[in-house]
Every structure is written in structure tokens, then in C-alpha cells.
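Comment on both lines for my students:
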Amino acid sequence: MRRRSLTSSQPRIWTLVVSAVLAAQAPSAPAQVRILEPVSNRAAAPQPPPLPALDVESAGRFARLALDCVHREYPNKISHVMNGDADIEPPHTLTPAFYGCMDWHSAVHGHWLLARLTREFPDAAFAAAARAALDQTLTPEHIAGDVAYLSAPGRSSFERPYGLAWLLQLASELRSWDDPDARRWSVTLAPLEAAAAASIKQWLPDLEYPIRVGEHPQTAFSFGLIWDWAGVAHDGEMRTLLAAKAKQFYLKDRRCPMAYEPSGEDFLSPCLGEADFMRRVLEPKAYSKWLRRFLPEIPARSSASWLAPAIISNRSDPKLAHLDGLNLSRAWMLEGIASGLPKRDGRVAALHAAAANHASAALIAVTSDHYEGSHWLGTFAVYLTTNAGLARTGTRRGSAAAAAPAAAGNPVHGTG
């Protein structure tokens, strides 16, 4: 999506002032902003409050969080199956590409953050350092090391699905970026991208039940990231597998218990994650009906009170700090759900209002104060404020990259 200059003729829903939520100090000159895709105005509905978009200063702040950690080896929390004494090695030896940011998946999505922000702000002051960090990591030798690690005996479930989904999201970002460095990095990453996709494809046919939790194993969130990658990578087989799981796991679901959320260490909403995935798979009319049965409490008026942001009591606790991520991911999921509905659906305003409320509660916490949060929350902030989950919704239906259509009468689509 291209940045556009703001004009008085554009819809004001995404018009925004870069607020104190995103930056502790406002620049004296007008901020350089990225205007998100405008949402159509809706008759007889009040304008929802705007979500914060991303200016170059805030982008730089988020980039610094990733630059501080992508090659910072310690502290480190590895998920490591050892097959013998020879496997007792430091993280940079075990996985030479992605060993920083506390854990493998955070290192992966920290690189996604750097790629995305450099693509969005190519002339920003942080761009050179971000390119250098990506160049340092994405070498054939490093990627071969991570492929070897994933392929070793006993590691078939390594970082599945969450870390592998973020790896595919990084691959998708590089594939979509019209830049000579990005094309070179994409080629370099390809063997690990292929290994991640193969791991998911091998797993999905054997997965009999969804994983409905608020942390890394959740299937719905990762399915959404993988679905988006499959559209960019023209992987119809992956789309077909995911569409089948959407039908098997989620199509008949009713009355998801939002009142039971959040759990104390959630960073993903099980209910909203499922709804955000299903909007990728269903046509708007079918999705509208499904959502009414699945989340009947969404009001048909502009109100944020139906879903309160989570309360965070201690941001220095690595598990309690998950709730800042929950507020960020809820915000983008609510926006995603709204995007999947027909434009004049009465629930859209309430979804936007709740999204803005959650974003305001969470973005202020994305700082360098506590490494427990700073090593990963920047990615969630960037995914939200750059509209990453919505950027490719045009490929959701009717794409040439689509998988084979579902059977007649099946409202779940295997198409892109």
C-alpha cells in the first residue's frame, strides 16, 4: 500500500493525528503519516474513533526495539530437543539465523518488523541499520543452519504453528517488496520457507482438533498468517488444506464465550482469532451470518463498551506482559473482522470503536522499559499500525493464486 498525502476530500475515518499514545513527544513539524485504506462511510452510523496510524518517528521507535534484539543472544529461552551431548550448544550455533530476541519466533518476527518498516519508510533514518541487520542474518550459511536444525530428529513440532507462521509472514513480506535487496533475501530465505511450509502441510491432515488457547499454540491466528502467505506465494495446496480445517474446526461454532476471556497470560484472543481467520475464508454475506451466530454480543451501533481492554498489573513479568500483546492483537483482529463484513453491516462501527479503544490502551506500553515485552511487542504494534493483516484482503476471493474451489453448496471457500 502506498503512502498518500492527506486531502480534505478523503474520508476522515482513517484521518489521524499522531497522538501521545504512539510517541512520548510530538514533533514540532507535521508528522509524516501513512494513510491506511479508508473505510467507506456508513449512513446513520456515528463515525468511530480513528485508530492511530504510523508516523516515521514512531516507526523508528519500533525499529529500534527490533534492532536492539535481533542479534542479542542473551537472555534466551530456547525450546530445544537434544539428541545427544553434541546438541549442547549456544543459540547462535543451534539456529545461526534466528537466535536473538529471547526466542526463535521473536527473532523471526523481529526481522519481519524490520523488513516491513523499511519497505514502508525506505528513506527513514533507521532504514540503513535495518537493511544491515537483515543482510547480516539472511545469508545462505545461516539459513542452511536453521534448516538443518528444523530437520533434525525429534524436532517435527518445533515452533509449530506460531513460529513457522511468522517465518512464512517474513517470507511473504520479502516476496511482496519490490526492492533488489528484498529479492535477494527472499531467494536466500527460500529453503527455510519451504521447510516451514512443508512442516505445516505434513501436520494439518493429522490435526483432528483446533487448539483454542490464547498463546503460541493457537491454530486460528497462525492459520490466518499462513493463509495470507499462501496467497502471496501462490500455494493453492496450502489454501485448500486451511479451508478444509476452517470447515472442520470452525464453521459450526456458536456463541464463543468471550465472557471467559481473557485468561491471565493470553496474548491472543481465542474467539477473535477464530473470527479473524474465518473472514479470510468466507464470503461477506456468509461471514455475516456466521459471525452473528458466533459472536452475537457485537452490538449493531457504535460502542466500545461491549469489550473492555485487558488490565496489565506488572509489565516486568514476562507472562503478565502478554496482556499488552492481547490488547494489540485484539485491535487488529477487530479491524479484520470489520473488513470481512458487508460495508453497511451495523456491527462495523462497534468493531472499529472497540479496536481503537484497545489500541489506545496498548500502544503506550510498547517501550524499551522492560525486555520482557520490548523483544516482541514492537512486532504486534507494527502489525496493527501498518494494517498488515488487511493489506492483502483483495486476494482473499477470486485470486489467480487461489486453491481449487470447495464442493458445491459449501460456503467455505478454498479460493484466495
